[in-house]
Amino acid sequence: MKNVILLIPTQTYRAQDFIRGAQALGVNLIVASQKQQAMQRLMKQRTLVVNMDNPERGAAQIIEAAKQTSIDAIVSVDDKGLQTAALACQQLGLAHISLETARLVQDKISMRQKLRSVEINQPLMTTYLPGDNLSEKVSEIGGFPVVSKPATLSGSIGVIRADSHRELTEAVKATLQIQINHGCNPDSPIIIEQYLPGAEYAVDAIVSGDSLKVLAFFEKPTPLVGPYFAESIYVTPPKLENNKQQAALEVINRARRGLEIKTGPIHAEIRINDLGKISLIEIAGRSIGGRCSRAIPFKGDLNLEQLILAEALEIELPEYSLENQASGVFMIPVPKAGILKSITGLEEAKKVPWIIDIDISATLGADLLPIPYDCQYLGFIFAKAPSAKVAQTALEQAHKLIELEIS
Asked: In this predicted model, what pLDDT tens digit does every residue of 275-310 receive, in sequence order?
């Protein structure tokens, strides 16, 4: 039986879906996180403690484990373990994106510079450090509105729009502090980039045999205009003409080739303005976050995690097809900071037509922070419907019925 190490945060939404994918493929999953897990004694060799903050140290821990158990693939669930996985795979001779590519997709400054060299449309950007002249920085990218964001964090953490010098001064101060709070070097620069208007979309795909296999093209129907950028609804298929979808996919494919992502999952975000101009906002060498992979409408029991594991093992991807209906997910954002005291209305929300599941991930008593201070979501609402509009309406209705007490 093949063995796969799964690098996964101790607090995660995704473990169960990867376990299901591993069972479908008949492979053994070794779950590696940064802290000892509660079930470690029972699971024996199926768990591993790995330092993902230090890729060299984390890779060394994996190499040591490989002396006891043969390892056939290493998969990182999110950005945090990507460099560790790349370095360990490099040393073990396993398939993975390169360490250089892993570093590129995790550093927005380097990534933007690389994508500029292959002529990808993207926001103009500049870097900022305390003491720099903000007015000069804004002039470099054409004026307001702009967005302040960390260079190495994801999930909308620290991303703040500013429409004036006063707002930008406050946004930069907040972004710098948020970056420090999340363990970044206090001397690390942040990004100031153009705010690009337009409809936003997300694309999830698998790169296999250096070919892009698109799994879902999601529309984000709720406008993301700031000042903060907490995502909520993803629906598919999008209200976007096929020729524009194909043009967007060509941009994403050129971008991933420019970054030399030759294998594994990608998650890309684009904006398309009123003139039809396509701009790449982000591209990551990982799959969609949270439990949102369940919104990809696969037929049968297949899931995204099974495809990711198959590609990592260099075995033929299972055949898949998508259901002929719309699908969507509502990521329930944290509305304010505080302690979660109660969640009510779930049974009523589940009865909304076209809602197929509500998965609450937050626990009572949890200390919550909203975006842009953290990237927590309280849970996920799922819908399948005859059209994306019907799915969106159902998701919105269900969300309105859920009441939270946070204090």
From this structure: 999 999 999 999 998 789 999 999 988 999 999 999
CB contact at 8 A, 62 and 46: no
Considering the entire predicted model, what is its pTM? 0.92
Choose among 387, 91, 38: nearest CA to 221.
Answer: 387
Residues in the chain with pLDDT values less than 70: 10-13, 36-45
**3-104 fold:** Rossmann fold (3.40.50)
pLDDT of residue 40: 46
Nearest to 293 by CA among 182, 161, 202, 401: 202
Q: How far is CA 190 from CA 8, 156, 159, 390, in A?
A: 26, 14, 10, 40
Report whether CATH 3.30.470.20 matches the domain 326-407: yes
Q: In the CATH hierarchy, which fold is given to the domain comprising 124-194?
A: Dna Ligase; domain 1 (3.30.1490)
Supply the angle between the helices 108-117 and 242-258 in degrees, to the nearest 10.
Answer: 110
Per-residue confidence (pLDDT) for residue 57, from 0 to 100: 96
Q: How far apart are CA 276 and CA 279, in angstroms?
A: 10
Q: Where are the domains of the chain?
A: 3-104, 124-194, 326-407
Q: How far apart are CA 199 and CA 325, in angstroms?
A: 22
pLDDT at 318: 83
Task: Provide the pLDDT for residue 39.
Answer: 45
Say if residues 388 and 238 touch (Cβ distance below 8 Å): yes
CB 21 within 8 A of CB 4: no
